[in-house]
Write a structure and sequence with these properties.
The protein folds into two domains: 2-53 and 63-87, no CATH class; 94-186, Cation efflux protein, cytoplasmic domain (Alpha-Beta Plaits), CATH 3.30.70. Helices cover 47% and strands 17% of the residues. It is built from five helices and five strands; from the N terminus they run H-H-H-E-E-H-E-E-H-E. The strands form two sheets. The chain has a three-stranded mixed sheet with strand order 3-4-5. Strands 1-2 form a two-stranded antiparallel sheet. Strand 3 (126-135) and strand 4 form a beta hairpin. The protein is elongated and about 70 Å long. It starts with a helix and ends in a 9-residue tail after the last strand.
């Protein structure tokens, strides 16, 4: 479902961008003095986007300004909803564990996140770890953030995470794979003086 939403978002954004590019480019071209086709809405570079009659046509009507404000408010709310729906990363609430009896068992996603984070924090040179599960309950994915202590080799920390914490999480949940995105960040510390 999320893949479909991603495709729909890209197509809609591409179409809106293409329409804006064509309209803006053509208005710019007419403004720079190119002759527009006969069907185009503007005749010359001295033509205005909205004439005074078009701008003031409904101004004296009592319903005009409340309608404009309401329409803009609805558009702003829809844009805000769309933005938050696309930026929000859905947290996986449960993982389906194959028990071999055909039924399966449900493992709470937060429990697996907590165990994964605490085991990653116990690794050498990791000051703090956070885990976040996404995806589907049959095919979960993990996002792990590690805060590394100074002078720790990131490759070693990553190797410890994959061979220990992620391997244990994958084995305990009975998963064939657990795709993981890992973000490493070092603790801020003062520069050392070299003599």
């Amino acid at each position: 479902m999320r893949a479909v939403l991603r495709v729909v978002n890209r197509v809609l954004i591409g179409l809106v961008g293409l329409v804006l590019l064509v309209i803006g480019g053509s208005v710019l071209a007419v403004g720079l003095g190119l002759d527009p086709p006969s069907w185009w809405i503007h005749d010359s570079k001295h033509d205005v986007l909205l004439s005074e009659a078009e701008r003031t046509r409904w101004r004296s009507e009592g319903w005009w300004w409340p309608t404009v404000i309401a329409a803009l408010a609805v558009l702003a709310l829809l844009a805000l909803w769309w933005l938050t729906a696309n930026l929000r990363r859905h947290r996986l609430t449960e993982v389906l564990v194959d028990t071999g009896d055909g039924e399966g068992a449900l493992l709470r996603g937060r429990a697996l996140e907590s165990v994964l984070a605490s085991e990653a924090t116990g690794a050498r040179g990791v000051q703090r770890a956070r885990a976040h599960l996404t995806g589907r309950r049959l095919a979960p994915e993990a996002r792990v953030r590690l805060l590394l202590e100074p002078h720790v080799d990131p490759g070693t920390a990553l190797d410890d995470l994959t061979t220990r914490a992620l391997a244990h999480a994958r084995g305990s949940a009975g998963l064939a794979s657990l795709p993981t995105e890992v973000r490493l960040r070092g603790v801020k510390h003062r520069a050392e003086r070299v003599s």
